[in-house]
Amino acid sequence: MSYYVEPEYEQYAKAIFGNTPEMIEFFSKILDYPFPWDKYAQVVVRDYVSGAMENTTATIFYEHLQVNNRYLIDDNHDGIIAHELFHHWFGDLVTTESWANLPLNEAFATYAEYLWNEYKYGNGDADAWWSEELSQYLSEAETKREPLIRYYYLDKEDMFDSHSYAKGGLTLHMLRKLVGDEAFFTALSLYLKKHQYQTAEIHHLRMAFEEVTGEDWNWFFNQWFLSAGHPELTVTDTFANGEVILKVVQNQNLTYSPLYRLPLYVDIWTNGKKARHYIVITQKEQEFRFKTNQQPDLVFFDGETQLVGEVNHERSIEEYIFQYKYSDKYLARIEALVRLSDQINENEQVRETIFLALNDEYWQIRQEAARAFEKYSGEKDTPKYINKLKEIVLKDKKSLVRAVAINALAALDNQSSEIYLQTVNDSSYAVAVNSMYAYANTGGANVQDVIEKFEKEENFLIVRTIAEFYSAFNTENKIEWYLEKMNKRAGGELLYLLDYFANYLTNQEADVQTKGANLLANKAKNDPNPTTRVSAYLALKRLDKVKGLKEILQEIRSAEKDKEALNYYDMIKE
Ligand SMILES: [Zn+2]
């Protein structure tokens, strides 16, 4: 087991990669298949084309994995580490037979992120991952709907999309919910053992599930792996004569997508108790009836929240409040909270529910509740909310909750700024950054002194914040600071800094502008990346007090050899 990083990150390598041995143990156990290779190395490189690559026994990662312990308070890289590791079974041990079957590699590696989250951090983190992946897929599906297994694609790169990854991972999760954990992991193990050191296609996976469960799974694989699209459902529920009538309509365009067969649960809550019903949707329009002795508190569709698709099921404010308070599922509760937060100003009962959520066991729910209070513009009970938010910014054990609570507190109380002098020293970068903004926005004294203390930090969140402050406040004598930070960076981070630097320079006198112009001209001519050269050129162009600027710009344009950059210069010529 080895980790390769640049010398200055050696001291953090174990903090970054240190969960790897436990991941290997966990994955080996659930797959009933020990790690198949005799060593595992993880190597960080510069300027890599993507996030990572699962070269057998020597995974490569891009440089953004190199972070310090302070960064790791807010976030970690377990997801990508678990993903590449899982490829050592799904991808390296059993390899997709053809590019068309790429989800046999990527869907599994993506799902490994869920599995690790669930095992290590609990179902809140795993389910938060689930809903993030679903949004990713649904947003891609607005412009692209392909079968997961695709024999027709224009470019090999087209397969690296939120179908192969996100939808693939979510589809495996649905399959797991359908067959149960024992059958699911036994089938994966069987698939690995049958096809080890060989290639496989999607039907081999189906047959492994069929062998383990004794059931036919063509219907599932056909609609989810071999067809495009997803269910778009409208669900309504009504209560009459001792019956809940649930109506489900499949609205997806049947020319491109299948009519789905969807086995799932409907939870009917009465008197605070849940009764679970199993249904199988098979028709375009279908009605289900459930005997209930009274009007239910809530009818909750897809009780396990596992369906990959869009479900439009309207509920009242009261039903959402009930859903937040009574559901035992993270996804149901966060859905309710997000819906309710739009009503924080209008409805006191809603506001009190969100206030309650500031104490929730799940940190993502506390964070969402704090975010909702940022939108509160009323007068009523403000001191109570302010006190609670103050307690959170100082004491919540999750840094990302403290960070969001700072924004909410600053929005509710724009008078007192002292507390941010305390929180700006929080161990978390996210908290420190939000504290800087909050301190400035609430009129704190000597903002510049507070900011300057962070000048030596290399964390990009901090650097970007300082760059923005110095340009907004026209802080004197900061040109050297910008130069130093820009010289250490490349790619997207550098583009941000170039932009702030140009903002900064436009408000400076001729001598400072000229000094900055030299640096920008140098970048515009010599940076190896054409995008950076063009950005430096555009930044330079904005400086109005530099003598001979026209000639300098002309010189840069004539020295340029990159075709796209030249086209761009032609396009923007006045
Ligand atoms: Zn992958």
From TrEMBL:
**Alphabetical keyword list:** Aminopeptidase, Hydrolase, Metal-binding, Metalloprotease, Protease, Zinc
Q: What is the lineage of its organism?
A: Bacteria, Pseudomonadati, Bacteroidota, Cytophagia, Cytophagales
Cofactor(s) it depends on: Zn(2+)
State one molecular function term (GO).
zinc ion binding
Q: Name one GO cellular component term.
A: extracellular space
Query: What is this protein identified as?
Result: Aminopeptidase N
EC number(s) in its UniProt entry? 3.4.11.2
* Catalyzed chemical reaction(s): Release of an N-terminal amino acid, Xaa-|-Yaa- from a peptide, amide or arylamide. Xaa is preferably Ala, but may be most amino acids including Pro (slow action). When a terminal hydrophobic residue is followed by a prolyl residue, the two may be released as an intact Xaa-Pro dipeptide
Q: In what residue span(s) does the Peptidase M1 membrane alanine aminopeptidase domain sit?
A: 19-224
Pfam families the record matches: HEAT_2, Peptidase_M1
Q: Name one GO biological process term.
A: proteolysis
Q: Which organism is it from?
A: Thermoflexibacter ruber
InterPro entries xrefs: ARM-like (IPR011989), ARM-type_fold (IPR016024), Peptidase_M1 (IPR001930), Peptidase_M1_aminopeptidases (IPR050344), Peptidase_M1_dom (IPR014782), Peptidase_M4/M1_CTD_sf (IPR027268)
Tell me the enzyme class.
hydrolase
Where in the sequence is the signal peptide annotated?
A: none
Which family does this protein fall into?
A: Belongs to the peptidase M1 family.
